[in-house]
Amino acid sequence: MQLQKYYIGIDVSKETLDIALTEEGQFVSGVSIGNNTKEIKKIFSDWEKEFGLDLGQTLVCMEHTGIYCWPLLVFLQQTPCKVCLENAYRIKHSNGLQRGKNDRVDAERIALYAWRNKDFLQEWKAPKSNIKRLKQLMTMRKGLVNAKKKLLVPIKETGKFIDRNMAKELEKSCCRSIRALERDIMAIEERILGIVRSDNNLGRMFDILVSIDGIGKITAIMFLTTTNAFTSFKEAKKYACYAGVVPFEHSSGKSIRGKTKLSHFANKDMKTVLHLCALTLCNSKGELGVYYRRKVAEGKNKMSVLNALRNKIVLRAFACIKEDKLYEKNYQNKFA
């Protein structure tokens, strides 16, 4: 990333923004404002007049807090500022031993973090409008699916231990709510597919993804939203790490050793979806189903083989998107 003169750290919360301005690592000013466009515009305008802030030479860094960032990001998109959204855990553990905490100090620490790590930060790019809409709809769908589970699971579990007539009465009392949730889920999925089909690029990628064994419609949509239509991630291995399906070694000298295992720092939703995809392939007649059964028969750990399937799904998705080709089940290498 190009070196900047001014580094602004922002601690984002639902109601307020704590902002710290630094110039080449030196604290200049700090302020707490409301999390709304009017006050955001005012503070940047005031700093331009008071401190000669040049937005073209400014990098703004903040923790990724989901929708709470959007008023600020919408404003910053209209300026020449560079923007960086960083993982809160990474910022926290880069500052060494800390005592005490408040929002004002956190903002200054974020600004100093950006200045110290300026050579390694990745500039944030705004997602396309359709991707943003898909993310919002997928979030709503997730909430509805979870609500349906909260109604269904207790009914199924208690039905085994209580009176049969009472179990039927409980099921009947929730029947209308469950059906309403199912209708809402179907309606959202139709809107999601409508958005995908209205965009030629997204529609082509969607068709490529669903052509791969194990990938369904929802999994394909999650690939599109988490990769920002395959622009945020260019390499399959990096995305596999992001999705939590890459095992890492844990060892230290001769006395302390641990098994190679997966990291908890991952997109848990995508990891779960990939796991479900892998499970559907276990008993399939395709090559991945044959691969799973062969490895298990050889004595391999089932979870290790499932994780290998998850990796293969990711690798195939990125390979097909890169080549802009539907997946060929009986592919023949032209150099073979």
Give the helices and strands, then pairings.
Blueprint: E1 6-12, E2 16-23, E3 26-34, H1 37-51, E4 58-63, H2 70-76, E5 82-86, H3 88-94, H4 103-116, H5 129-158, H6 164-198, H7 200-210, H8 217-226, H9 236-242, E6 247-252, E7 256-262, H10 268-282, H11 287-297, H12 302-323
Parallel strand pairs: 1-4, 4-5
Antiparallel strand pairs: 1-2, 2-3, 6-7
Overview features:
about 325 residues; alpha/beta; 5-stranded mixed beta sheet; two-stranded antiparallel sheet; 12 helices; 7 strands; about 15% strand; globular
Structure described in brief:
The protein is of the alpha/beta class and 336 residues long.
**Total helical elements:** 12
Give, in spatial order, the strands making up the sheet with the most strands.
3-2-1-4-5
End-to-end separation in angstroms reads 42 Å
**Secondary-structure element string:** EEEHEHEHHHHHHHEEHHH
Q: Point out poorly predicted stretches.
A: none
How many individual β-strands? 7
Q: Helix fraction?
A: 40-55%
Overview of the structural elements:
Helix content is 55%, strand content 14%. With 336 residues, the chain is an alpha/beta fold. The strands form 2 sheets. A 5-stranded mixed beta sheet has the order 3-2-1-4-5. Strands 6-7 form a two-stranded antiparallel ribbon. β2 and β3 form a beta hairpin. α5 runs antiparallel to α6. The longest helix is centred in the middle third of the chain and has 35 residues. It is globular. The model has no long low-confidence stretch (mean pLDDT 87).
